[in-house]
Amino acid sequence: MIRVLVADDQAAVRAGLVLILRSAPDIEVVGEAADGLEAVALARRLRPHVVLMDVRMPRLDGISATRELAGVDADVLVLTTFDVDEYVFGALRAGAAGFLLKDIDADRLVEAVRTVAAGEGVLAPAVTRRLISAFAGRPRPVGAAPPPGLADLTPREREVFGCLGEGLSNGQIAARLHMAETTTKTHVSRILAKLGLRSRVQAAILAQETAESGLPAGGPDAGAAG
Questions:
Q1: Which residues of the chain have pLDDT under 50?
Q2: What is the pLDDT of residue 38?
Q3: Which terminal residue of the chain has fewer beta carbons within 10 Å of its beta carbon, N or C?
């Protein structure tokens, strides 16, 4: 059973989200929060698998709440009204597993929660590449060293890392690299651990930044099959 905490300051919106999620047989809504502070407190106490987090909330906004949950084993799925929202960038940097627009239909919302609970990131399709490109477009300092842990990636992990940078799902990566999806998931988990990242979305951003800056992916055999 997927345990979900819903955080939104609008009671009507929150009630609608809860109603949708409770219609799924494999999802249990374990709590509701009306602001960021309450979301953090409930997440620490209830230990949900997924926190559905609004961005603009009183007392503590969704981004700050996401940062506060860095030590909690819960994936944050951000909900926003606008597809161009400066807060979304901060949320992804803070470790959110992804974000969705509030106009998403019920079935896709349920599927998104399942996807995040399974360890994959979710981004609103209309803005996926725009988000990644926006992060990648921020130049790294001249002479910047590769991020810590990048040199520890195996050749196969570097290939998977590059695919993450393209925004590919585990299934798409598996198909491209001709391996089982479960193997792909294992590689992604190891990449996140080695790079000290919380989500595959952060890995995608780092992969794009690394590629755009011309930094090596770890060694002379980068890109080789492993």
A1: 215-226
A2: 97
A3: N
Q: Which phi and psi (to 5°) does residue 99 adopt?
A: -150, 155
How far does Cα 110 stand from its chain's mean position?
Answer: 16
Q: Which CATH architecture has domain 2-123?
A: 3-Layer(aba) Sandwich (3.40)
Secondary structure of residue 47 in the 3-state scheme: coil
Report the alpha-carbon distance of residue 81 to residue 62 in Å, rounded: 13
| pLDDT the model gives residue 103 | 83
Spatial contact of 17 and 7, defined as CB atoms under 8 Å apart: no
Identify the pLDDT of residue 127.
53
Identical fold, 2-123 and 133-226: yes
The full set of domain ranges for the chain reads 2-123, 133-226
Q: In this structure, are residues 22 and 29 in contact, taking their beta carbons and an 8 Å threshold?
A: yes
Tokens 């992604």 belong to which residue? 188
Number of Cβ within 10 Å of residue 75's Cβ equals 25
pTM of the predicted structure, to 2 decimals:
0.71
